[in-house]
User: What shape does this take?
Amino acid sequence: MPKRKPSSHQRHISQLEQALQETVERYELVFKATHDILYDLDIQTGTMSWNNELYDRFGYAADEPVNTLEWWVSHIHPDDALGIEKNLYEWFAGNENTWQSEYRFRKSNGEYSYVLDRSFVTRDGNGAPVRIIGSLFDITERRELDRAKDEFISLVSHQLRTPLTIIRVYGEMFAGRLLGPLTKLQAQHIARMTDASVRLIKLVDDILDVSRIELGHYAVHRELANFNQLVQVGLDQVTPLASAKHVSLSFTPDSTCNVVRIDSTIVMQILDNLLVNAIRYTHANKGRVQVACRRQDEELLLSVTDNGIGIPKAEQARIFDRFYRAHNAVNIEEHGTGLGLYLVQVLTKAVGGRIWFDSADGQGTTFYVALPAD
Ligand code: ADP
Assistant: This one.
């Protein structure tokens, strides 16, 4: 008997089934590729389903009773559970549909993995949560790396900075003849030693700051401040450097900057780096550095202008990169780390500001910083 041809309706159904099958396979492959553990929670019934990555990554057997909300909650580290619960209730009560958090999740061998949980909630007509679809991503290695970096930072700050400071202080005491007279040669060598220790301290400080920022350990504290006064303090700090090179410094206070809300420590760090660069990359005896500030709407605009070596066009795109130094800078100033501007840019962004510059080879440079000031 000849086979009956499938009706167009049947053909349509089988095409849909095939498309569905392909979609399911595609998602399974995506989760395999990203190692994401996927869950689907029905809030009304408290039932939960997981994809196979849960078993593969955390070692649970297929008969583990994983399909309840209680199972999930009981596998969160007790020290994290309360915080997560509070966090979830706030999320449910709000009107955001996405949520993410990091916590420790217990594996079948009893050890804990750090997971990044990112989820999406669907709500009913009254905004009450109905279903949560989420994914867990194992971030244990990243956390371990952060911890190692943290330990390294505190090691560097205590073990390296303290002896370096001692070298600098004694060097300065010798140089100031506080410990007796010195021959010319001795004085020269002592000065070199002290200079080198100052550079090392600056390098250690810069590396510490960069690491702190990258680890998210840099808190921003904004408070009312008189920006004109801060600039004056910043200028006073770099005056010895400028005088040694016979570079002039000028600043005209602006009354719109008398009361601004900023993080003074961060702003001083930005200003100091820009001023030191302006002096360093300007020719001795004919250098001029000008600072200006002005309040514009909600922003504080700061500019530091010099008539120095400028930044060659071809190198301008990389000037904020870590460790980058333009070739003309290396010629005029042998020592440098290329970390200062990177730090300035990261700090500016940390306080919600912007930084840019105008420069041409041999024609001087102006750096501009715009910071939220309200
Ligand atoms: P460093 O000064 O230690 O080299 P920075 O990160 O502070 O590191 O600066 C990076 C580079 O940007 C400098 O090496 C120099 O090439 C360039 N640069 C920064 N400020 C100026 C300036 N005022 N004039 C000319 N070049 C500058």
Remarks:
- The mean pLDDT is 90.
- Residues 163 and 197 are 10 Å apart (CA to CA).
